[in-house]
Specification:
CATH architecture of the largest domain: 3-Layer(aba) Sandwich
EC number: 2.1.1.-
GO molecular function: methyltransferase activity
Pfam families: Methyltransf_13, Methyltransf_14, Methyltransf_23
Structural class: alpha/beta
Strand content: 15-25%
InterPro entries: Methyltransf_Zn-bd_dom_put (IPR013630), Methyltransf_Zn-bd_dom_put_sf (IPR038576), MeTrfase_14 (IPR013691), SAM-dependent_MTases_sf (IPR029063)
CATH class of the largest domain: Alpha Beta
CATH superfamily of the largest domain: Vaccinia Virus protein VP39
Shape: globular
CATH topology of the largest domain: Rossmann fold
Strand order of the largest sheet: 7-6-5-8-9-12-11
GO biological process, one term: methylation
Helix content: 25-40%
Length: 406
């Protein structure tokens, strides 16, 4: 099946179909089950600009609404990451007089509150009202709106040019990259930078972490595809940095064409991608075959353990878990419930497969025999926190990059 590339308008060829999927963050009450929204989750590859993207777009208002339940501050690791990011900006791009920082998708303000406490002018765009209110409670200036060309023009008129426009785990969510870049063009200072970090296709392919593919993640970036997109809109990729968070990301730094000299890291990552043949259709077809293998191995293991009478729970009612539970048909017959620390998810049912979500205290009351670690990108933090689970004889089930018991 072919569709049209959202970046360059050429053909996109589908290489992976993850089937009928629900909204990944739509946690339900019992009386909402008959109104659940589903769509087809499939991924394609543009042979022209190399951008990997979903072939079906979910309306943004269905995903990013007032009751959006994800909070960036929920992880100790991520709080530290954003604190360091803010400090890095304060030492560099925001060290100049009257600097102005804008964040696209500021969530609960975990990054911008450090910027604000340093006395630097700032503004966060956050369309999800509840998390935007949390950001405001931390003293962060927030506009409850989507970032696009029209809103960027309004902010430029009111606040002047931005020294930094930053986004974390947000730009990959936005199918209308053309309007994003036009907005950046309107708002960014001549010597400013547009910096964003998102899951990296190279890590997804290498780790077979296909649960990184869900409704909110529309694009799956590489240095090559970001470079091509930036050039198309009059910008230039001037730096890249590999990040360990969320299972492997890249931070891309983009400037106006000719404004800055690209770092050696850009050419190095481009060469790495070329050697791995990351933009080749054969590589992506092999990835799809590996995805099917993970599904078969995980379902086989869960069925075997259940047949032996073992109790299995899930840990982390993540957006990613919607992909794997629905693609693998993992319902309450295989995983009895999922523990999660987010109050807004507790007492509800997971999207699609309707696993009950319980608070973390339920995990030890009593401990299950096995726990599927859906929040595998926080494995080190979670396993350390839940050390008594292992001491009580419990075992973790992991599925990235292979299915195994730990």
């Amino acid at each position: 099946m072919t569709t049209t590339c959202k970046v360059c308008g050429n053909d996109v060829t589908e290489f992976l179909d993850l089937g009928r999927q629900p909204l990944s963050d739509a946690f339900l009450t019992g009386d909402e089950l008959d109104r659940e929204f589903f769509y087809r989750l499939a991924v394609g590859h543009c042979r022209s600009c190399t951008m990997v993207q979903l072939v079906e777009e979910v309306p943004r208002e269905r995903m990013f609404h007032h009751d959006y339940p994800y909070y960036s501050s929920g992880s100790t690791t991520m709080r530290a990451h954003f604190e360091q990011t803010a400090q890095d900006f304060l030492r560099t791009e925001l060290a100049k007089p009257d600097a102005f920082a804008v964040e696209i998708g500021c969530n609960d303000g975990v990054m911008l509150k450090t910027i604000g406490k340093a006395g630097v002018r700032h503004l966060g765009f956050e369309p999800s009202g509840r998390v935007a209110d949390v950001a405001r409670s931390h003293g962060v200036q927030v506009r409850t709106d989507f970032f696009e060309e029209a809103t960027a023009v309004e902010v430029r008129a009111e606040h002047g040019p931005a020294s930094v426009i930053y986004a974390a785990n947000t730009i990959c969510h936005i199918p209308y990259l053309d309007s994003i870049f036009r907005g950046v063009d309107a708002l960014l200072a001549e010597d400013g930078v547009f910096v964003f970090e998102d899951p990296y296709l190279g890590d997804i392919v290498r780790k077979v972490s296909f649960d990184q593919i869900y409704d909110e993640h529309f694009f799956f970036f590489t240095a090559r595809s970001v470079q091509a997109a930036a050039k198309r809109f009059g910008f230039e990729l001037v730096d890249v940095r590999r990040l360990p968070v969320h299972g492997g990301e890249v931070r891309y730094t983009i400037a106006r064409a000719g404004a800055r000299r690209p770092s050696a890291a850009v050419d190095a990552l481009l060469a790495e991608e070329s050697a791995a043949q990351l933009a080749e259709a054969a590589t992506l077809r092999e990835f799809a075959a590996n995805v099917a293998g993970i599904r078969d191995d995980l379902v086989s293991l869960l069925r075997s353990l259940r047949a032996e009478g073992h109790r299995i729970a899930g840990y982390g009612a993540t957006a990613k878990s919607a992909t794997i539970t629905n693609f693998c048909d993992i319902g309450p017959d295989l995983v009895s419930y999922v523990c999660d620390s987010t109050p807004a998810k507790q007492g509800r049912l997971t999207p699609g497969k309707h696993l009950p979500v319980k608070p973390p205290e339920a995990f030890s009351d009593p401990y299950p025999d096995y726990a599927v670690l859906f929040a595998w990108n926080h494995a080190e933090e979670i396993i350390a926190k839940e050390h008594r689970f292992r001491e009580a004889g419990g075992r973790w089930i992991l599925y990235v990059p292979t299915v195994r018991i730990a």
